[in-house]
Design a protein that fits this description.
There is one protein chain. By secondary structure, this protein is an alpha+beta fold. The protein has 14 helices and 11 strands. Strands 1, 2, 3, 4, 5, 6 and 7 form a 7-stranded mixed beta sheet that branches. It has a two-stranded parallel sheet with strand order 8-9. Strands 10-11 form a two-stranded antiparallel ribbon. It is 49% helix and 17% strand.
């Protein structure tokens, strides 16, 4: 643990230096791009190509800055030690969500998309291999596979095993963050998912599964993997994500920047059909608004909010709570104030709150020596529940 802690600290120090470096580069690049843009806008068109190069460099620096900032909190999640069978060379590699380099030749954290990362996701200890695009299969002897527990920039612990992401670790990650996004699942990719993600891009793939089984997650990670390993053959603009409605598409693509994927197109199914059918579409077909399409519009959200507000008013009327002997236990004004102060609280919680207030009021109105009477009243008088 001491050795791992020392390595963890050294790794974070390198990332800290990278952050400072790319902050300076990003700031300098931003000023340069702004100056070139102003010059081109003023009529100096000869600087246009230089502006494009400057803008691309600025985007690169900002992307590297974002990746290093993210890596600073969690540099890596796994480690593999292995020996290459053919060369006899031994390696010890740390694997993270974002690849981190000290310089152009010294890589301290391997990107999860790198071919060698397959050893962490799929291989058991002993004889194994990983495939490198355009090179082939590299046979290895896997000596160690280690999983780290890192939280908020601190190394909590680690364990060695044959299966990278156990259900126990997955449950722990999900319980820590209820709003898990695509990028947070990288460290818990299962073997079957990894096989689909790393399948050759030169073949059609159909992935079947029930709702919530991870099909979309695998598809987004696959795009990230292909762009990382086949960057000379594919560009982001060649990818297009097709979905049934805009709401779904926005949800899916919002997580892509976390996977280092930018400038990917997205289209609704009906728009895609219009494009591939061209003139034939206008001649033979027409777009019909369906209930499913309506659900992705802003008007649906407004209608839903109005419906919920009406339901809340019906379920929580400002009707005073009375008793023949005790009189008014909870007034109309008191109920209205409670509802006004708890607009974002669920109907169920409001009912529990009002019931508690009713009990307290009965205790206040009934003399101390009449506890049994008080209990009977509490049973007989309640707010909805």
């Amino acid at each position: 643990m001491r050795e791992e802690q020392e390595h963890f600290n050294r790794c974070r120090e390198v990332i800290r230096e990278n952050i400072i470096l790319y902050e300076e580069k990003a700031e300098k690049g931003k000023k340069e791009t702004e100056e070139l843009y102003a010059a081109v806008s003023s009529g100096d068109t000869e600087l246009y190509n230089q502006l494009i190069v400057s803008r691309d460099m600025q985007e690169h620096n900002e992307n590297m800055l974002r990746k290093n900032r993210a890596a600073f909190q969690k540099p890596y999640f796994g480690r593999v030690d292995y020996k290459e069978i053919k060369t006899g060379q031994e390696e010890s590699l740390y694997i993270g969500k974002n690849g981190v380099s000290k310089d152009k030749t010294n890589v301290i954290v391997i990107d999860w998309r790198a071919p060698v990362s397959t050893l962490y996701y799929e291989n058991e200890l002993g004889a194994g291999s990983y495939d490198v695009p355009d090179i082939g299969t590299i046979p290895v002897d896997l000596k160690l596979k280690r999983t780290f527990d890192v939280n908020d920039g601190k190394l909590i612990g680690y364990y060695d095993n044959d299966t990278a992401a156990t259900d126990e670790l997955l449950v722990k990650y999900l319980s820590q963050n209820k709003d898990v996004v695509l990028g947070d699942i990288i460290s818990t990719i299962q073997k079957e998912q990894n096989e689909i993600i790393r399948e050759t891009p030169f073949a059609n793939i159909i992935v079947q599964g029930v709702a919530g089984s991870g099909k979309t997650t695998v598809a987004m990670h696959r795009i990230s993997y292909i762009l990382y390993n086949y960057e000379k053959r594919f560009t982001p603009s060649e990818f297009c994500i097709i979905g049934s409605n805009d709401m779904l598409l926005n949800y899916i693509t919002s997580g892509l920047p976390e996977l280092d994927v930018h400038h990917v197109k997205q289209k609704r199914m009906d728009v895609f059909f219009r494009e591939i059918l061209g003139r034939e579409w206008k001649k033979k077909y027409q777009v019909v608004e369906t209930k499913e399409a309506f659900k992705s519009k802003l008007n649906f959200v407004k209608e839903l909010e109005k419906y919920l507000a009406d339901m809340r008013e019906k379920l929580l009327p400002c009707t005073p709570v009375r008793d023949e002997k005790l009189g008014v236990i909870l007034s109309k004004e008191s109920i209205a104030t409670t509802l006004q102060e708890n607009k974002n609280v669920s109907v169920h919680q409001i009912c529990k709150l009002l019931n508690e207030r009713i009990k307290n009021r009965i205790r206040f109105l009934v003399p101390e020596d009449r506890h049994e009477y008080c209990k009977e009243k509490n049973k007989g008088i309640s707010w909805l529940l």
